[in-house]
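Issue 218. Parser rejects a valid record. Input:
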Amino acid sequence: MNLFAAYTEKILLVLKDLVAPDVDLSRVTVDPPREAAHGDMACNAAMVLAKPTGQPPRKLAETLVPLLKKITGVSDVTIAGPGFLNITLHSHIWQTHLKTILECGESYGNATTGGGQPVNVEYVSANPTGPMHVGHCRNAVLGDTIASLLQKVGFKVCREYYINDAGGQIINLTRSAYLRYTQALGVTVEDSAFANDLYPGDYLIPVGQHLAEKHGPAWLDQPETAWMDTFREEVMVAMMALINEDLKALGITIDVFSSEKTITDSGLLEQTLQLLEQQGDIYIGTLPPP
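Output the parser choked on:
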């Protein structure tokens, strides 16, 4: 158990002896203080219990100070502002706890709070139109940290990446890859060919080379309708391989990759809208201005 949780329990025991049995103590917290100079822990007990006990917060805090000082390991308790309690621990408490952390290793902080409840964390979900950039990496680290923390305290976590592989951007990406395919077969492609929202990035050059090696000149001078579906699938595989390389470099493993196109093609979107409409959960109209 971490020290904040341990001292929360100790403080709650003191409060139970001080207040009536029916007083709700669930809002009492023990957290790091905003400023390190204020001590090791900050407790809001006097603030949240003032109304139930019929006492001003400051007066209740003055009552609590000598009681909290009696708790093992507490060296000092002071009052801040309207009644916040700042608690300082003896240095040996932190030293002993550091030893506990080292002995526990990676298991330190494990908890059963989640009780095995399933939780889905969807993160990264960068558009598969190219390699990840630093903004994607930031969200990847943040999302994976949230997933890891939930897993640490006992939730059954599923990490999901939602692939935005439907819509105009993917069509334009495939058109761009087709240009690189023709280029790999010796066709001159001017930079201007990548106008109109196409993707001129060099990362598509090896994709075009792969398509040329695999298909040869079979799709040269063919209409878009002939090669679009085939190329689209292979380009998506190539883009997700790039993204997975970056995720692997970050130490991130995704459990489920969900395809927008697969969901759209399955009809689930229409079924969901119909269900919401039947339940009266869809609003059609103009909202008033904020």
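Fixed in the parser; the record now loads. Strands lie at 30-31, 41-43, 74-80, 84-89, 118-122, 156-163, 256-259.
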